[in-house]
């Protein structure tokens, strides 16, 4: 199914540039890319592990599709993340019809394999291209990892299944992004909030970006408004998951006024809120199962997320992760609510809050705020700022100022990781 669809695309746009690899100083038309794939023999393995952000990634994917092999994109050697050292043999055969494996981002636990059929991949790409309005005359700039769910769904599949050209930039440095954009009159740029922040601070967002997308982590309102004010460019917040691809997209032309708003469900996606307050996603793009161990939260066209949510006016509002709630003397607070308030302070660049065991045994947890600031500010100043906007019991007791709160390689901030660092620092 997938390779047949690719051949239709290649034959529809044979002489148009499909892929540019700026680091390699090469470009391929759709016909040239098809020919290169056809000339190479298929590998003998059952599962293929494309890696890197080069043209070889696409050739590996297409060769696997042609040979009906399973594709499992990886950032590093596959042995680092697989279920067992003898994988895939020791864990038994994959379910019938599986064409693709993703690894989860591990924000809520150890990485897991997510198994997709060809039809589910095709549905995800169709949902994204239709909802976002991706088009061939706005090529994608490829900066985010092709192996991650976000990059695969927004860059790889639109190229191979819909004919949306891609320019592999080779670097996220501001000057590299500027140079890459010069090849086309208009481009689409998909990135994570940390990259958008860096480019904004360096005044490096290309003037010909016609569509700006941010995913991987919530897009801070302060950043969204700052880019819009300086460039007139609306960054569209995109929410998705490894288990089901795209979920919601903020298609509005004006900046959001509520940072918890993730937009409306993508075409082909249905959402609801379960009795436990978490979002449920239904649609043809939902993965088949986890592998090798299935779970009742995924399957039969349904994914039960761990994201607390509300649906208002047809829009999805994310309130935080169920497991991230902080228990302060029996009362629960979501760290996102505190972070939204603290990042409104003009000196705060980034903020992560989390709970740690309170020295007072009867008080459950105490709240710690980890801050990256642009100018020096005292803990007492931040406490006074917070107490005017938060109930007293939600004001952090501990203020930890750090040089940088860097997102991980997937563009995410891990509260669990910062909590661990804090406890190690405190000798607890």
> What CATH architecture label of the largest domain applies?
3-Layer(aba) Sandwich
Average pLDDT reading: 90
- Give the low-pLDDT segments: 77-86
Radius of gyration (CA) equals 22 Å
- Distance N to C terminus: 54 Å
Query: How many domain units?
Result: 2
Task: Write down the CATH class of the largest domain.
Answer: Alpha Beta
What is the helix content? 25-40%
Q: How much of the polypeptide forms β-strand, as a percent range?
A: 25-35%
Main sheet properties: 14 strands, mixed
Total DSSP helices:
11
- The third-level CATH topology of the largest domain is Rossmann fold
Structural class: alpha/beta
What is the overall shape? globular
CATH level-4 homologous superfamily of the largest domain: ANL, N-terminal domain
Provide a descriptive summary of the structure in words.
- The protein folds into two domains: 2-320, Rossmann fold, CATH 3.40.50.12780; 325-425, GMP Synthetase, Chain A, domain 3.
- Helix content is 28%, strand content 28%.
- The protein is built from eleven helices and 24 strands.
- Strands 1, 2, 7, 8, 9, 10, 11, 12, 13, 14, 15, 17, 18 and 19 form a 14-stranded mixed β-sheet that branches. Strands 5-6-16 form a three-stranded antiparallel β-sheet. It has a three-stranded mixed β-sheet with strand order 22-23-24.
- A hairpin with a 3-residue loop joins β11 (235-241) and β12.
- α1 (2-12) packs across α2, α2 packs across α3 and α4 (118-132) crosses α5.
- Mean pLDDT is 90; it is low at 77-86.
